[in-house]
Amino acid sequence: MKKITLLIFILFSLLFGNDIENPKLFIECKSCSQDFIKEKISYLNFVRDRHDADIHILETTQNTGAGGKEHTIIFLGQFDFDGKNDTLNFISNVDDSDDQIRSERVRLIQIGLVPYLLKTSVLSQMSININQEIVAKKITTDKWNNWVYSISGNGFLNAQQSSNSLNTFGKIKASRITEDWKISLSLGGSYNENEFDFDGEEYISTSESKKVRGSIIKSLTNHLSIGIWSSVWSSSYGNTNIGISLTPKIEYNIFPYSESNQQALRLVYSIGGEQVNYADTTIYFKIQESLYSEGLSISYSTVKPWGSVNTSLSGNHYFHDFSKNILSLNTGLSLRLIKGLSLNIMGSGSMVHNQLSIPKGDYSIEDVLLERAELETQFTYFASIGLSYSFGSIYNNVVNSRFGGGGNRMSYSYGY
């Protein structure tokens, strides 16, 4: 009997023995509190570069139909844990507090760390506690039938002796998202006023816009979806009294939609029509017109341990004149070049040949400076590039919040 007991003890020691030091962690997450995670998981070592970590934890997010977010936490093993990977998910609701979200994030991270801790000294301090009452509860009915409603509004006022500005915006939205359908309806409007007093002259600029939008999307397969978009709008800046559009679209995702929080390659084709009544006669001598167009876009996004990529190329043209078109490229890259060194690039550019609503006539200097009306252009672009480098101690465990400093907080954005 003693021999059997000894053999069991030796076998247990081989399987769960403390032959690996406590793992070193590197965590990437979008707008999360790294300090809170370190405080709650203080029994492990945090490092500031993924190349020094035994476990690389990466979080990505995407919006849910109820206005919340689906958080995907990816565990990537390195060194002794190479090839030992896992993925866990949790849903945060739109009315969840920041504390609820960060607590759930920590809870799930600790659960995901369990397989990595079985051969460390932490094992002897681990226990499992399950709230059976909560687990036993099941959602049987939804009185809202998956519909989510939101009302938002904001106002901004800025003034000094010679100038003042007022900006207001409001929006009402209703949406319903299920596995098979995605429905969205919204009503919004804005009003902007800027006043300047220069050399005894007063200049006032105002603009306003209103828009009603709706869309219905149907999931066909794990790669294919179709939908239809409709809008009614008016815009003083866009020289439009009223515009109405209807645009069907079809989308094919090379990767399954179930993987879209980690990678997606989408092809979208659209064809539609619109009726526009202009406030002033356009440079093409139109006061109203019916327009028909088609568009095609391709976009790719991925989140990997080495960084993230988001890029898209889209084009659209009108059928009555193929020279009236627009071609746009948008891209963002976050790349870890070597240990401690990261490169961040963002850029966008458009070749613009489809501004049909530009009013004819000359603009005054006040119109240009105060942005009272849309100006004609053949291109737009934006670009930014940056490098960051850090070195020194690889450990990053200490939390010091004196004078409100986050200390070691790190946040990465992947465009979700």
What does this structure look like?
- This protein has two domains: 124 residues, Rossmann fold (3-Layer(aba) Sandwich); 231 residues, Beta Barrel (Porin), CATH 2.40.160.
- Helix content is 13%, strand content 50%.
- The protein is mostly beta strands and 416 residues long.
- The N terminus and C terminus are likely disordered.
CATH fold description of the largest domain = Porin
> How much helix is in the residues?
10-25%
Could you state the order of secondary-structure elements as H and E?
A: HEHEEEEHHEEEEEEEEEEEHE
Number of E strands: 17
Strand numbers in spatial order across the main sheet: 6-7-8-9-10-11-12-13-14-15-16-17
What's the topology here?
Elements: H1 2-16, E1 24-28, H2 34-40, E2 45-46, E3 55-63, E4 69-77, E5 85-92, H3 98-117, H4 132-136, E6 147-160, E7 163-177, E8 181-198, E9 201-219, E10 224-235, E11 240-253, E12 263-278, E13 288-304, E14 307-318, E15 325-338, E16 341-352, H5 365-370, E17 379-389
Parallel strand pairs: 1-2, 1-3
Antiparallel strand pairs: 3-4, 4-5, 6-7, 7-8, 8-9, 9-10, 10-11, 11-12, 12-13, 13-14, 14-15, 15-16, 16-17
Task: Summarize it.
The chain is mainly beta and 416 residues long. It is 13% helix and 50% strand.
Keywords:
elongated; mainly beta; disordered C terminus; 416 residues; 12-stranded antiparallel beta sheet; 2 domains; Porin; disordered N terminus; 50% strand; Rossmann fold; 5-stranded mixed beta sheet
